[in-house]
Specification:
This protein is of the alpha/beta class. The chain has one domain: Leucine Aminopeptidase, subunit E, domain 1 (3-Layer(aba) Sandwich), CATH 3.40.220. 40% of the residues lie in helices and 20% in strands. The protein starts with a strand and ends with a helix. The mean pLDDT is 98. It binds ligand AR6. Ligand AR6 binds next to strand 2 and helix 1.
Length: 168
Amino acid sequence: MNLKVQKSDITQLQVDAIVNAANSSLLGGGGVDGAIHRAGGPAILAECKEKGGCPTGEAVITTAGNLPAKKVIHTVGPIWKGGHQNEKELLAECYKNSLELAENHQLKSIAFPNISTGVYGFPKSLAAPIAIDTVNDYFNENPQSIIEDVYFICFDDENYKLYSDLLN
Ligand code: AR6
């Protein structure tokens, strides 16, 4: 499998699955969540409503509506509260559960935003190694995985530099 870092708008990507950094209501919000719903259209929200919400650390899958991606995987990152409320474990769960969902739906390429590092305030320098380590652990534990490409999509320079340094 290939782990790649890219600086781009996740809504533009032609991959099997893009991941949304949602909130537990799944009813939309700002940041990457707002961008995905705006660009994907109402079909995504309609399916999100049917799901009835999603606990922190877990993930659900919906149509990608009008987006070039095939599916959207919505995961709910933890809100940073200082680091002693299981935030690191919950962030890792977001990556792991999203990969499992992609795997179960035969999706071979997946693009992650930098979950929790916007409005939810997770320190970027702590989140990047958790994201990369969790993906690497997943492939070590699942050598038969059908997932071929994992993209870490960075929107800001700080995250892009962190991921670039860690991956190279
Ligand atoms: N493409 C890729 N990355 C993006 C995009 C985009 N179009 N837009 C923003 N980012 P955030 P969170 C980056 O705040 O911290 C929402 O209101 C952004 O620079 O979107 O998990 C939800 O409804 C940052 O690095 O998500 C929740 O209530 C990263 O995406 C809450 O925000 C995540 O920032 C979730 O907060």
